Task: inverse folding
């Protein structure tokens, strides 16, 4: 089967933001993580999303982090800047900064906590898209924001030339198929457990947390779907289920992804910023064990 066009690439990771032990951003480690991702199946990275702990970083820190990642991998992969906040003026500031720094696109999450009307969503999305000349991926994740983007809202904002894609964490495949047909927006899976489902329902790719450690496998799954080998795609999906479970269901993904990257030797620590706390030693050991059982600690095994 032929997958839909993917404006930001097929396999992207919602990248963690590494910190030093004293809590400051570790730009050298960020470049190392980005290099690891691109060397292992990722065609793009999302910087300063929720998994990048964006609620705890400043605009200035976001700019330095984005610049470091672009310098590391921007000539080989799509670098998407997370610019979504619940303050339109701040999101515009971040989008303008992202364009100046050299990002290839922006990720714009539904405003959280203040729960605007659908009319407010349209105004917010269009204002941010108008502010910078970068393509925009909307991020629909009602479990975090308390608000779902309505189908009619998608139809309205899809008319904007720069709003081109959606990262979907709603999890309603039937709804997504309708929206894709009505709008032509490219849909990315924003939930690792549904990555295969979205690819077989018209999705164009994935924006993953688990791809921190399984980018090569996800790239293989995407390729298998594209050539019509669903048996192979399902085999890859099944093999990753324990990894998805331990990373996505035991603690917030940023915490477990950092523990997984430490197990791989990509990160020296698993430091996060409050209100998150680092994964404890017991869960860290379990994550290492699951990765080992899945063959992900051995670079020669797929």
Result:
């Amino acid at each position: 089967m032929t997958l839909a066009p993917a404006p930001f690439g097929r396999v992207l990771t919602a990248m963690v933001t590494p910190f030093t032990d004293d809590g400051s951003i570790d730009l050298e480690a960020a470049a190392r993580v980005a290099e690891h991702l691109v060397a292992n199946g990722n065609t793009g990275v999302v910087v300063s999303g929720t998994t990048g702990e964006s609620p705890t970083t400043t605009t200035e820190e976001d700019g330095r982090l984005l610049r470091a990642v672009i310098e590391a991998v921007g000539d080989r992969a799509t670098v998407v800047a997370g610019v979504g906040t619940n303050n339109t003026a701040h999101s515009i500031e971040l989008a303008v900064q992202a364009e100046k720094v050299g990002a290839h696109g922006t990720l714009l999450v539904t405003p959280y906590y203040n729960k605007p009307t659908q009319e407010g969503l349209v105004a917010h999305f269009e204002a941010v898209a108008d502010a910078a000349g970068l393509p925009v991926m909307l991020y629909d994740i009602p479990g975090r924001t308390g608000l779902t983007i309505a189908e009619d809202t998608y139809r309205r904002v899809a008319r904007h030339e720069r709003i081109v894609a959606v990262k979907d964490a709603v999890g309603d495949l039937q709804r997504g198929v309708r929206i894709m047909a009505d709008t032509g927006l490219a849909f990315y899976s924003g939930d690792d457990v549904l990555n295969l489902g979205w690819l077989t329902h018209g999705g164009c790719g994935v924006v993953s947390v688990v791809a921190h450690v399984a980018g090569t496998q996800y790239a293989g799954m995407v390729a298998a779907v594209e050539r019509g080998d669903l048996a192979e795609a399902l085999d890859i999906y099944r093999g990753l289920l324990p990894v998805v479970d331990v990373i996505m269901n035991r603690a917030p993904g940023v915490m477990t992804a950092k523990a997984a990257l430490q197990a791989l030797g990509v990160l020296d620590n698993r430091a996060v910023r409050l209100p998150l706390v680092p994964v404890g030693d017991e869960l860290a050991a379990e994550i290492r064990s699951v990765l080992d059982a899945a063959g992900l600690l051995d670079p020669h095994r797929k």
About this structure: The beta strands are 11-14, 44-47, 78-82, 105-109, 136-140, 163-168, 186-189, 205-208. Residues 230-248 form the longest helix (19 residues). The mean pLDDT is 97.
